[in-house]
Design goal:
It contains six helices and no strands. It has 142 residues and is mostly helical. The chain is elongated, with a radius of gyration of 25 Å. The two termini are 47 Å apart.
């Protein structure tokens, strides 16, 4: 095997193992190497694979956590706007029931996010403001 071709296969091996989480058997078949070579490369590149896995995982977590923060903030803003609109409306207005229903649905969605994403080591936040504050402390990067 040529040196360049071998290096290319090693890079593919590392990527498939670290980022895609493929099994050694699947990688062997995919890139055309023997099972014994894949075992040897697993040992040889163990630290590189581990670092790449961690870095890839951290990127996913950071991206996902920020999107959770953005979703909660957007729901909070929507809830505030609905509340403001309800307060300014005449409650006899037919469309008000739709606003109340929307407010209720938004509250349910916020509760689901609070239950799902509140840090386990702290008690459930009593308000959306407390939850947003806990997200800022635990997930937002400086």
């Amino acid at each position: 095997m040529k040196s360049h071709e071998s290096q290319e296969k090693q890079e593919q091996f590392i990527e498939y193992r670290a980022i895609m989480g493929m099994s050694l058997e699947t990688i062997s078949k995919e890139i055309g190497i023997s099972k014994s070579t894949s075992i040897a490369w697993e040992k040889q590149f163990k630290e590189v694979i581990h670092m790449l896995k961690k870095s890839h995982f951290d990127l996913i977590v950071e991206t996902y956590d920020l999107s959770i923060f953005d979703r909660v903030k957007a729901l909070k803003d929507l809830s505030d706007r609905i509340n403001k609109e309800i307060k300014e409306r005449d409650l006899k207005d037919i469309a008000t029931d739709k606003l109340i229903s929307l407010l209720h649905d938004t509250g349910k969605r916020i509760d689901i996010l609070i239950d799902r994403y509140s840090p386990p080591e702290v008690s459930r936040p009593q308000s959306i403001e407390q939850f947003i504050h806990s997200i800022e402390l635990n997930y937002k990067k400086p």
